[in-house]
Every structure is written in structure tokens, then in C-alpha cells.
Amino acid sequence: SQQGEEDPQALSIQEGENATMNCSYKTSINNLQWYRQNSGRGLVHLILIRSNEREKHSGRLRVTLDTSKKSSSLLITASRAADTASYFCAHMIYNQGGKLIFGQGTELSVKP
Amino acid sequence: DAGITQSPRYKITETGRQVTLMCHQTWSHSYMFWYRQDLGHGLRLIYYSAAADITDKGEVPDGYVVSRSKTENFPLTLESATRSQTSVYFCASSETGAGETQYFGPGTRLLVL
Q: Contact B34/B55 with Cβ under 8 angstroms?
């Protein structure tokens, strides 16, 4: 399977703490993306990092990409209860029609 | 600005019936996608389309049919629904490419009895 793996599957933290989620994949990629899904809703794009980039920031989000280890991490700093959601990584396999392959997600719970 | 919409939002049907799930986007994005989301499997691509009249299979296309006569619409048809097709179905679109940022609809929850 080309599906990526995410770790941990579930994460529970207190408001104000940082949350780190990890994603691994198996093949060469063009880019890697992170999405958020609130319960019962569609996915929302958070950030895209290309294979020639190592780190990217967007507000309280920090994404890193290590192509040598075929892994990425998403850091949410100073978490809020509203960050409670499932987080998915998705990667675009290099030169294979550009389709996104999604991981199974990390379920984040931020307690007030 | 409606973005991307799906209808119906909830559907209950019986085994063997034909069901069509609708997807409409107002952005004129070239690319559109259908995914299903199941516990333990994450999101899996069913079909995608790069433009009107151009469609291609994804990871799990069996039992599904798509068409794209207009850029803004991408209906998904279950020709003869089976219980294994009980799932949440998401439509998505992308302006720049199949592997670029995708914008998702709210989903359709389908129950096949």
C-alpha cells in the first residue's frame, strides 16, 4: 500500500500545550499536505510543503519535512479547544498522476 | 460564494438500488475528486476528473460510475448499491492539479440497508 502512516492515532492534551503529529510515507513525493477535519465535516487544507522545502509556518502551525527519512511533522503551538479535530497528512506521489494519498489521521483532543 | 456543495447530505437506500450523489463547485476548478471515508481506511480515492469529459479511476472504483459533462458538476453513481458501500463520501476540487491543494465538500453520509 502507498498509504502514509500517522502517529499517534490519538492525542489528548490540555489547552496551551503544544501538539505534535507525525506522518511517514513510502515513496518519493512532490509535496506533502496537512488537512484538518472537524467531526462530521469535510476536510480543510492547512498547509502544503514541497519536496525541496524543509520547514513551513502558518500562524500557530509549523510543518517540517525530512525527505531522507520520508517523514513529516505538524506542530500546533499553544493549542486551543477549537483545535480539537482529526488531522490528516496527504502526499503526492512523484510522477504518478499527481493523486493525493491520505494517511489515516491523528485524532487530537484539546481539553479546556 | 457557495464553494463546493454536495447533495444529499444524508441518504438511506436499499441493496441493489441505484443512487446518485451530486457535487457542484462554483470556482470553475479543473480537477474534481470523489473519496470515500471509512474507519480504518482513511480517505480513499474513487474517481477523479481533470476536466470536463475526462475522468479516471482511483484506488477503489469498482461499483461506481462518474460523469463530467460540465466543469462545475461531478456526479457519482452507485449502479447497484451494496452494503459495503455504506460510507461517507466526499467530493473535492482543485484549481491547479490533482496533487495540489484540494477543497472539500461537506460530505454525504450513505447507508445501504
A: no
The segments of chain A whose pLDDT lies below 50 read: none
Q: What is the pLDDT of residue B1?
A: 57
Instruction: Look at the alpha carbons of A35, A37, B24, B86 in this order and tell me if their dihedral is positive or negative.
Output: positive
Q: Contact B43/A102, CB-based, under 8 Å?
A: yes
Give the model's pLDDT for residue A94: 67
Q: Dihedral, CA atoms, A44, A45, A46, A48, nearest 10 degrees? A: 170
Length of chain A (residues): 112
Establish if B69 touches chain A: CB-CB under 8 angstroms: no
| Chain A 30-89, residues with CB within 8 Å of chain B CB atoms | 30-31, 33, 35, 40-45, 48, 88
For the stretch B46-105, pLDDT in tens is 999 999 999 999 989 999 999 999 999 999 999 999 999 999 999 999 998 877 899 999
**Cα torsion at B19, B103, A85, A66 (round to 10°)?**
120
